[in-house]
Amino acid sequence: MRTAPLDAAALEACISAAVAAPSIYNTQPWRFRLDQEAVALEVRAVPERGLRHADPVGRALHLSVGAAVFNLRVAAAHVGWAPVVRLLPDPEDPGVLASLRLSGTGRRHTAGHRPDLYPMIWRRHSSRFPFSRRLLPPNVRAELVEAAQTEGASLTFPGAAETARLLRVAMEAEHRNRADPDRAVESRRWVHPGPDDSTGVGIPRVALGPQDALEQVPMRDFTAQRHPERLPAQPFEPVPVVALLATEHDWRSDWLRAGQALEHVLLVATAHGVRASLLHQPMEWPDLRRDLSHVPDLTGHAQMLVRLGYGPEGPATPRRAPDQVWSRSTTGQPE
Ligand SMILES: Cc1cc2nc3c(=O)[nH]c(=O)nc-3n(C[C@H](O)[C@H](O)[C@H](O)COP(=O)(O)O)c2cc1C
């Protein structure tokens, strides 16, 4: 077992990978701390970056952190460590969402994922643009389903009628979001007018994409204004491919598992040249989230709707620098 501290370059690679994960509104609600004695990375939530109106219980925050944990696992394995993850490791400190013990032999590992995912971490971007009519091949669907299952979640591709129903539920959620003044203000706060915003969080306007002129795919209007000049409508794919990510239970650990599953699915999709955007709006209204869970053959709790297809790559969004999000401790106390 390797017990020497991580070298600086490997550590920076791991943290850069973690922060490249998707997060709701690009809030990046995470912090990392290296415990050098235990050779473990602790992942903490940053509750100040939570969304009081859209995500009052912090479910989406846990999904976001779960996605960062998956990237950490992929990067740690890439630099030669065999990460052992514990979710919610400290009952006395609920702010610690995960810890990764980093032991290994120095050779590359693939901790339960295909070996080529590391570069996908930076190639993956949300693509909120219309996709083509090209369908996802069955082998790609099967691999995405398997990726979710590896993380203890399920991914279901419903049939045409059920997909249409899911999109209608998501559309209802989108309408409610726009009509809710608190949520609208909260959402707008995370949209930046230009590419040179210095905060390193939030979504630049170029990444927002258009609305669906066919009014079938409920793309989130982050500006909650539906202003035609800002979000010119375009026809989206007439037969959207949507997959439902779900977990058997609905505890905080399930939300973290769902986040890891989401990122595993997104990175495998990226490896196949498949783009994705997320439709999380119905998860933000308890009655609509329950409606989503009534998919045939599904037992469990809906965690995310993922729209998949072939189309333009989404633009990169900003990230906070690694040195802004991690600290080092040898005593068990933060610096
Ligand atoms: C829990 C969660 C919920 C999200 N909800 C939505 C959504 O409803 N609509 C959307 O377009 N993107 C959604 N996203 C994607 C984020 O906006 C996106 O990850 C973030 O802006 C960073 O951009 P990137 O994915 O291109 O790296 C969500 C991401 C997460 C993790």
Major sheet attributes: 5 strands, mixed
CATH superfamily of the largest domain: NADH Oxidase
Distance between the termini: 27 Å
CATH fold name of the largest domain, please?
NADH Oxidase
Helical content class: 25-40%
Low-confidence stretches: none
**Lateral arrangement of strands in the main beta sheet:** 3-4-2-1-11
Structural class: alpha+beta
CATH class of the largest domain: Alpha Beta
Q: What is the overall silhouette?
A: globular
Ions, cofactors and other bound molecules: flavin mononucleotide
The overall strand count is 11
Describe the structure.
It is built from 9 helices and 11 strands. Helix 4 (138-150) runs antiparallel to helix 7. It has a 5-stranded mixed beta sheet. The chain has a 4-stranded antiparallel beta sheet with strand order 5-8-10-9, with helices on both faces. It has 335 residues and is an alpha+beta fold. It folds into 2 domains: 8-119, NADH Oxidase; 138-309, 3-Layer(aba) Sandwich (NADH Oxidase), CATH 3.40.109. The chain starts with 7 loop residues before the first helix and ends in a 6-residue tail after the last strand. A hairpin with a 4-residue loop joins strand 1 and strand 2. It is globular, with a radius of gyration of 19 Å. The structure holds flavin mononucleotide (FMN). Residues 22-26, 60, 63-64, 67, 125-126, 128, 203, 220, 277-281, 314, 317 line the site of flavin mononucleotide.
Topology of this protein?
Elements: H1 8-19, E1 30-35, E2 40-45, H2 59-78, E3 82-87, E4 96-103, H3 120-123, H4 138-150, E5 154-156, H5 160-179, H6 181-188, E6 191-192, E7 203-204, E8 241-247, H7 252-271, E9 275-279, H8 286-292, E10 301-309, H9 322-325, E11 326-329
Parallel strand pairs: 1-11, 6-7
Antiparallel strand pairs: 1-2, 2-4, 3-4, 5-8, 8-10, 9-10
The structure holds flavin mononucleotide.
